[in-house]
Specification:
single chain; 169 residues; mainly beta; eight-stranded antiparallel beta barrel; 1 helix; elongated
Amino acid sequence: MCLLARKLLACAVLLALPACGRGLENGTYAFTTTGIRQDSCSVEPEATLPLPEAEVESAGDSIRLEFAAEGPLVPGLTGASGDKALIGRYLPDREVERFIADATFDVVREIQGFSCFVFAHSSIEARVRDDESFTGRLRIDYTRRPEAQPECLPACIVEVDFDAAKIGD
């Protein structure tokens, strides 16, 4: 093989490497809460906090998760208007395929019996198990907006561990 052809082949392989192993398939994923790390937003913390399904789009080093259903944590994941997807990227770790994603927005959240206008920051840290499943931690930090009722908590956190598996395209 001539020298130029070997160099071109080497360049092609190097360019393809960053996308290697980005194996999460696009589709709908079901989330199962496996543990509650903290819940300072509830009067009486729940034994479990169900998570809604999410549409996952994975391309190259980028990942997008858009949660679609109503549920206890939905006010930190979706909102009354606009796109509330968490956007992130895969981390450059050769041992374990991992990604992070987050989003921030204003929502109305039921907190300790009050409907509170809050600023929500949602974040996910996850490890890919295979091309159709991942596991990780979801954290939502809520901060009371100035126009919210004074009875609303000034801030609270919900943080859960989860498993996610693909259930549809």
